[in-house]
Design a protein that fits this description.
By secondary structure, the protein is of the alpha/beta class. It is 38% helix and 16% strand. It has a 5-stranded mixed β-sheet with strand order 3-2-4-1-5, sandwiched between helices.
């Protein structure tokens, strides 16, 4: 099972490279959803914020639930591609969330370290992580794991990566 992650600017290249069956777009309300054909699609619209702020749309439990449900319909035969604008916060949070959902026997800290190794700039959105931790009944372990890897390296855009959950 492969989770592919990229910034919006590299989406076309990664659609070609990975030929995913499922695509998740995590974008701000002002960003247009890219046209992606011949895949199952989930488009979540919210601002990349760590806590609710007036005038901005935070991620919420329903959005995290939609992400988890969407992954439940993925058979893993072809990659699932996740992207946000920069490939640093929302998409890496979604990848970590899905890794925890799809590999429940694996330790959250191990998965967070694997994410860091794949993406030195990954800075998973902490509100998304907290919501998923609650939804998956992880008792704070997802939050602690992401806190332990700390903020990623400064970057305008994250490096694209493919995470093979079977390894």
């Amino acid at each position: 099972m492969i989770l592919a992650v990229c910034p919006l600017s590299r989406l076309d290249a990664h659609l070609t490279a990975h030929a995913p069956s499922h695509v998740v777009s995590l974008l701000s309300p002002t960003a247009l959803a890219p046209d992606v054909a011949d895949v199952e699609r989930l488009h979540l619209v919210f601002h990349d914020i760590a806590e609710p702020r007036e005038g901005l749309i935070p991620p919420d439990a329903a959005m995290v639930g939609a992400l988890l449900a969407f992954a439940g319909g993925w058979d893993g035969a072809r990659p699932l591609l996740l992207h946000c604008y920069a490939g640093v916060s929302r998409s890496t949070a979604a990848a970590f969330i899905l890794a925890c959902r799809l590999a429940p026997e694996r330790d959250e800290a191990e998965l967070a370290r694997a994410l860091r190794a794949l993406s030195p700039s990954a800075t998973p959105n902490p509100l998304m992580i907290a919501l998923a931790d609650a939804a998956l009944g992880r008792d704070g372990r997802m939050i602690a794991a992401v806190t332990a890897i700390g903020r990623g390296a400064d970057a305008f855009e994250g490096e694209a990566f493919a995470w093979d959950l079977d390894q």
